[in-house]
Amino acid sequence: MPEDHHEIVAPSPLLTSGGELLQVGWARRPLLDCNLEDADFYRLGAAQRYRIKRWDYYGVTYPGGYFSATIANLGYAGQVFVYLVDFDATTYVEDTITVPFGIGVELARNSGVGSSSYAGRKAQLTFAVEAESRNVNVGWEGFGGKRLEAFMHYDEPPEHESTVIVIPIEGKRFYYNRKINCLPVRGKITVGDTIIPLEPETSNGNLDWGRGVWAYSSFWVWASASGFLGDGRRVGLNLGYGFGDTSAATENTILLDGRIHKLGEVDFEYDNADFMAPWRMRSERVGLTFTPFLDRTAQTNLALIRSEVHQMFGHYSGTVVDDNGNDVEIDGLIGWAEEHQARW
Fold first, then answer.
1. Number of domains within the chain
2. How does pLDDT run across 76-101, given as a tens digit for each residue?
3. 239-244, long-range: CB < 8 A, 24+ apart
4. Closest CA to 285 of 225, 219, 237
5. Looking at the domain assignment, is residue 6 inside a domain?
6. Angle at CA of residue 216, ends 8 and 312, nearest 5°
7. What distance lies between CA 66 and its chain's CA centroid?
8. Is 7 contained in some domain?
9. More confident residue, 74 or 67
10. What's the pLDDT at 171?
11. Is 101 a domain residue?
């Protein structure tokens, strides 16, 4: 573990009654209660709820593709979206619903218990956390002109570790995030007459659970993958940089058979005038090249909320060093790397 990074090992509330972070750092499990009701960063207290951002983003990587479903409340508006990526055809289908002020969006207080949901005329989504598992149910009309239905059961053994960070941003703004990689998934995705089976031996689920208050103009880069090494072990990558004070913690980790290996700062080299050119991630323990084969571009323009993300799907190759000093050889691991610009 990097010496200047602080590992959180004791439970506590996220915030004091005055809105200050009680602990800053990273953890292997979600130990903090997300008491957003104590956030206190605006003089006009009634306006604070419009600046708090919350989302649950689930995905699954399976042979030949990737599927994702998100329920989010960005304060000014709620967003619910799903997308399906076909690796072989290098295509994707995506649909988004935006609801004013998040009406109809329900999000769990914490990442380890409870349920999140949205129910509307066009779509119904439920994300439920149970003992040692997570269930994702999606029904969506008119997805690429067809009916989409998905049921995904994520196995989550209690010993499976995740990447959790708590960092300050500006003043009393903050970010509390949990990312889980490499959860075995079983179920199926149905689009029209096409059925995509999900088997736990070959499907890897991921979760990006975020809560916090950002500066109005924000930027970040996120790289992730969940898959298998040549020897059959499950491997996950989670790398990134951008907003916030990361002096006590970054989100840079690798996951090997359910155990987190913590990394320090990682340098990214990529061309935002040509996102399809190879990306490089470098540090003392990371030497990776990411070669994209698909650019999923998503844009939002809702006056107060504007964003643009280039999520590049591609292959990772290179070497990462684990906490024991062992080289982990990565060859053709499918994942993504993205750049996100937001005004929200």
1. 1
2. 889 999 999 999 999 999 999 999 98
3. 239/263, 239/266, 239/268, 239/281, 239/286, 241/265, 241/266, 241/268, 242/218, 242/340, 243/169, 243/175, 243/214, 243/215, 243/218, 243/219, 244/167, 244/168, 244/169, 244/175
4. 237
5. no
6. 75
7. 14
8. no
9. 67
10. 82
11. yes
> Residue 306, Cβ neighbours under 10 Å: how many?
14
Domain that holds residue 44: 12-343
Pick from 66, 18, 332: which is nearest to 189 by CA?
A: 66
pLDDT greater at residue 1 or residue 198: 198
Residue located via tokens 């999140």: 116
Q: CA 191, 197, 203: angle at the middle one, nearest 5? A: 120
For the segment 309-336, the average pLDDT, to the nearest whole number, is: 97
Q: How far apart are CA 217 and CA 204, in angstroms?
A: 33
Tokens of 184: 């075995």
- Determine the pLDDT at residue 303: 62
325 burial (CB, 10 Å; 0-12 / 13-18 / 19+) is exposed
Rounded Cα–Cα distance for residues 175 and 259 (Å): 23
> What's the CA gap between 310 and 216, in Å, rounded?
20
The answer, yes or no, to whether residue 3 has pLDDT greater than 80, is no
Distance CA 74, CA 55 (A): 8
Residue 344: band (very low, low, confident or very high) from pLDDT cuts 50, 70, 90: low
pLDDT in tens, 137-178: 999 999 999 999 999 999 999 999 999 999 999 888 999 999
With contact defined as beta carbons under 8 Å apart, do 260 and 252 qualify? Answer: no
Distance CA(234)–CA(160), nearest Å, equals 12
